[in-house]
Design a protein that fits this description.
Among the domains are: 144 residues, Tetratricopeptide repeat domain (Serine Threonine Protein Phosphatase 5, Tetratricopeptide repeat); 217 residues, Tetratricopeptide repeat domain (Serine Threonine Protein Phosphatase 5, Tetratricopeptide repeat, Alpha Horseshoe). 59% of the residues lie in helices and 0% in strands. 50% of the residues are buried.
């Protein structure tokens, strides 16, 4: 007579052997489902991945995992015998959410060695970012390829993304793997391939195709794709310019913590483009983006505190935000911080430090700072010796600005210094109350060009054109109409008031690397896990 317990043991052993030999897409269909315990069910509910093909229920985004509740039940599920790779993977997610990266690596490795494709993908992300293991893009690429080969298409998508970031980039390989990912239904792949079509890298440029790919990824909930669609509508790239549609897409991503989308939404509320102008709403969106480290939003907060827009005027807070952005090599922030230091606005007056920031911004090619330095040297202000020759040299550098208005103004000012002195005068020029007041008034305003106009005697109508006002349409055009959302300011008629945003990227802001970092796949917080 056959012992039923022995037969059951043999079958279980056979199933475990298959798990080590077959890719996840195959063995998940033949492995016998053991009776689930209460801990198993609770672990699935609290921490199962929304992107796991073997998930039970809708899944839980990593940033929303209740770590305190999930840790004990998922540890219990993961350590139950015989070992089950899916629960090792889920337990790894909980450990990663708790920033216990080395422990997460161990659990992912156990599940990956058993052939669980999502674990290979998440382990690849840790190797890519150097969390819990030494950073190793080669190992990350192997793991992404392994996940893709096992049927987890996002692995191919992330592999394609790595090729776009290699040195030098290999766009042909990137396009090959991204296309394979798209064929497998990967949102990551659609985002990567959309970027390639948008830029014409590795494929022929096609904005319509890029937009369709972004829309496909956005339908699957990928925040970076929503952000990209917002940019396309905001800039009129491949679709008619539509600020209202842009605001809708930015909101969809921003409400789930996408920092770059939060910053863009802040600019739209600030300027009243596509939404009702609302400084308080603008401030509320700039704040989390600035806290996430985006220098452009830090600039915006500095400007709003400086001017009392949407928040009580506070020069000390303005200085704090400008300093955070300046520490990231943001030239606009360096320039504004220098003005505050020069005049003791919100900070102890320190002309030497002010000059260091101005010189650093000017040396980076920032034309407004070159002009500001020129004014100081021409007049002997700010603790420097009067040196009209030096002033003229700085103005001629600023005249090479790609912004026509700044270049023209710099040329005019240089021409007015018709007889440069042979060298510096022996002593700094003494500032009168009148010159000091002019400098302080300019510093309070901030923003560069207005400073220039005040000291050079030009009227404000000479300034660069303000951005056009937005379209009041609420979506439905372009790529995937988004519909209305219930958020203050949406759905109203766009303001016609010509109010420039506090700081928007333009050609004369050459060093702002945080503009699109969070828009793609480089921010580990936004990885699909």
């Amino acid at each position: 007579m056959i012992n039923k317990r022995k037969v059951s043991s043999i079958l279980t052993g056979f199933a475990l052997l298959l798990q080590t030999l077959l890719p996840q897409a195959a063995w998940s269909q033949v492995a016998p489902a053991a009776d689930k315990t209460a801990a198993d069910r609770r672990c699935d509910e609290l921490a199962g991945s929304p992107y796991d093909p073997g998930k039970v229920g809708p899944g839980m985004p990593m940033e929303q995992i209740n770590i305190g509740e999930a840790l004990p039940v998922c540890e219990q599920a993961a350590t139950r015998r015989p070992p089950r790779p899916r629960y090792q993977f889920i337990y790894g997610r909980v450990l990663e959410a708790a920033n216990r990266y080395a422990d997460a690596v161990k659990q992912y490795s156990l599940a990956e060695q058993a052939g669980y494709a999502p674990a290979a993908f998440n382990l690849g992300q840790l190797y890519q970012t150097g969390r819990g293991v030494p950073q190793n893009w080669g190992e990350a690429a192997k793991l992404y390829r392994k996940a893709g080969d096992a049927g987890y298409a996002d692995g191919y998508g992330r592999l394609g993304d790595l090729y776009t970031r290699s040195d030098p980039p290999n766009y042909a390989e990137a396009a090959k793997w991204a296309q394979a990912a798209v064929q497998g239904g990967s949102a990551d792949g659609a985002l990567v391939l959309g970027r390639l079509y948008q830029a014409g890298n590795g494929v022929q440029k096609n904005l319509a195709t890029a937009g369709r790919l972004y829309a496909e990824a956005a339908k699957q909930g990928l925040l970076g794709a929503m952000y990209r669609l917002g940019l396309m509508h905001e800039n009129g790239e491949g679709v008619p310019q539509d600020y209202a549609a842009a605001a809708q897409w930015f909101y969809k991503a921003a409400q789930y913590g996408h920092a770059a989308a939060q910053g863009e939404l802040g600019y739209l509320f600030y300027s009243g483009q596509g939404v009702t102008q609302d400084y308080r709403a603008a401030f509320s969106w700039f704040l989390p983006a600035a806290q996430a480290g985006l220098s452009l939003s830090q600039d915006a907060l500095g400007t709003m505190y400086e001017n009392g827009q949407g928040v009580a005027k506070d020069d000390s807070e303005a200085v704090a935000w400008f300093r955070r952005a300046a520490d990231q090599n943001d030239v606009y922030a360096m320039d504004n911080l220098a003005m505050h230091l020069m005049n003791g606005l919100g900070v102890a007056r320190n002309q030497a430090e002010a000059m260091r920031w101005l010189r650093k911004a000017a040396d980076s090619g920032y034309a407004p700072s070159q002009i500001h330095l020129a004014i100081l040297y021409e007049n002997g202000w700010g603790g420097v010796n009067q040196d009209r020759q030096k002033a003229r040299e700085l103005l001629l550098q600023a005249a090479n600005s790609p912004v026509p208005e700044i270049a023209r103004r710099a040329k005019e000012m240089a021409a007015n210094i018709s007889s440069p002195s042979p060298g510096p005068s022996p002593r700094p020029r003494v500032e009168t109350s009148d010159t000091s007041a002019k400098w302080k008034a300019a510093a309070v305003i901030g923003g560069g060009l207005l400073f220039l106009y005040l000291l050079s005697g030009h009227n404000s109508h000479d300034s660069a054109s303000a951005p056009p006002t937005g379209n009041s349409s609420s979506g439905g055009s372009g790529y995937g109409g988004t519909g209305n959302v219930s958020s203050p300011g949406f759905g109203g008629t766009s303001s016609t008031k010509s109010t420039p945003a506090p700081h928007k990227p333009t050609p004369y802001y050459p060093n702002n690397p945080t503009k699109s970092v969070n828009g793609d796949l480089t921010d580990p917080k936004l990885f699909r896990k």
